[in-house]
Amino acid sequence: MGIVLASSSPRRIELLSNLNLEFKVLKSEIDENVNNKDEPFITAVSLSLQKALDVASRVDKDDIVIGADTIVVFEGEILGKPNDEKQAYDTLKKLSGKYHTVVTGISIIRLSDNKKITDYVSTSVKMKELDSEKIKRYIQTKEPMDKAGAYGIQGYGALLVEKIDGDYFNVVGLPLAKLEENLYRHFNINII
Ligand SMILES: Cc1cn([C@H]2C[C@H](O)[C@@H](COP(=O)(O)OP(=O)(O)OP(=O)(O)O)O2)c(=O)[nH]c1=O
């Protein structure tokens, strides 16, 4: 029996490593199709479950598999990862000076006893007013490209954020306290 993180995200791997938990990493191969008709948290939870199920089918049935998906929601619309610099610019322009919500869905599953636990965490983030020059310079750092909402709060993106209300780690991509709560309650795993 082991723990498997169904993710290729270096942020998630690093966050989980900080807890001194032994785990393997396996990347899921699902298509991340976002359906804007569902409530955003349903999208995040559903994608996290698809990632966990995909990886669970390739590991030991006794393994506990963790999947996560982070989305950025602005005025009810999901803002995904930008496909190009123009999209990154448009996303950051939208977020400038306003509040948005970062939602991470998590799924923890074990096929041997058919346990499938899902949960999510929302964090409210207020961006500073960003002028066009600042946005362009930020895009030049290349940081926005692989990130939901076109920014990374853990990097230069920290300089764009005015304040947050909620779990910081959720914004980075893995709500550690909520994850630990579920690992303890449903799988009897005690980290500290
Ligand atoms: C808002 C925000 C997002 N992000 C990242 C977290 C996620 O990695 C990414 C959202 O994409 P995800 O699809 O959640 O994750 P991923 O494709 O990077 O990795 P995998 O599916 O293999 O687990 O955006 C930050 O790193 N910092 C931030 O401040």
Automatic annotation (TrEMBL):
Chief place of localization: cytoplasm
Keyword annotations from UniProtKB, A to Z: Cytoplasm, Hydrolase, Nucleotide metabolism
Gene3D superfamilies: 3.90.950.10
Catalytic activities: UTP + H2O = UMP + diphosphate + H(+); dTTP + H2O = dTMP + diphosphate + H(+)
UniProt xrefs under HAMAP family: Maf
Functional note: Nucleoside triphosphate pyrophosphatase that hydrolyzes dTTP and UTP. May have a dual role in cell division arrest and in preventing the incorporation of modified nucleotides into cellular nucleic acids.
GO cellular component, one term: cytoplasm
One GO term of the biological process aspect: nucleotide metabolic process
InterPro entries noted in UniProt: ITPase-like_fam (IPR029001), Maf-like (IPR003697)
Protein name according to UniProt: dTTP/UTP pyrophosphatase
Residues carrying the site annotation Important for substrate specificity: R11, T70, Q154
Gene Ontology molecular functions: dTTP diphosphatase activity; UTP diphosphatase activity
Residue positions of the active site: D69
Superkingdom, taxonomy of origin: Bacteria
Cofactor field: a divalent metal cation
EC number, UniProt record: 3.6.1.9
Family classification: Belongs to the Maf family. YhdE subfamily.
Species: Alkalithermobacter paradoxus
Location relative to the cell: Cytoplasm
